[in-house]
Amino acid sequence: MRASPAAVAIVLCCARLAAGQAPAAGPPAGDWTFAASVYFYQVPDDDNYAQPTVTADRDSLHLEARFNYEDLDTGSAWIGYNLTGGKTVEWELTPMLGGVFGNSAGIAPGYKGSLSWHRLGVSSEGEFLFAVGDASENFFYNWSEVAFAPAEWWRFGVATQRTHAYASDREIQRGLFAGFTYRALDSAVYVFNPDDSHPIVVVAVTVGF
To answer: How far apart are CA 109 and CA 25, in angstroms?
Structure first.
């Protein structure tokens, strides 16, 4: 699936509208919360594609489904346990276990985690895929960010990713991003390997409900 200019226009429109909106308060205990995101990848000299993810959380329980994350034409289903803590430095950690099926297949222990202190935030998600039948296909996936938020409605920073979904001369992709929040909608634009003549551009849109 190709990332269309309309997707970029949506993100830019959200950025213009995001004027001083604070994120909504957390849900009462026992309530379900859901989120859906799509990351549109524009990859030079390769197929562009979309990577959707859906999550559901209730107290400590975390459920998640992904497509085109570990590999193209590959899905994964996850269950995890949410942990939180801290006051001055707030932290979240979700250890997870997933099953991967499709073009790549196997079992994957993984995690999501974040730290926040005032306007600074660090987040990371990763997994190690133990491939079925061929150990040479084992692979560690990772996406990490360091962000600074001048205001509650926007942020910028650096990001890295290690992926098997497309070919690259660089084992670890690194780049810059800017993100914007408007009520339950979050959007971001990433530029990986910005020093290359044809960098990789990722447009992300997330909705919580």
So the answer is: 30
pTM, full prediction: 0.85
Rounded distance, CA 52 to CA 44, Å? 20
Give how many domains the chain has, as a whole number: 1
Where residue 200 sits, what CATH number does that domain have?
Answer: 2.40.160.40
Domain enclosing residue 41, as ranges? 5-208
Q: Which residue has 């003549």 as its token pair? A: 197
Q: What pLDDT score was predicted for residue 20?
A: 38
pLDDT in tens, 68-106: 999 999 999 999 999 999 999 999 999 999 999 999 999
Q: Which two tokens stand for residue 174?
A: 């690194």
Coil vs helix vs strand at 43 = coil
Tokens of 172: 């670890």
Joined together, the tokens standing for residue 150 give 């001048």
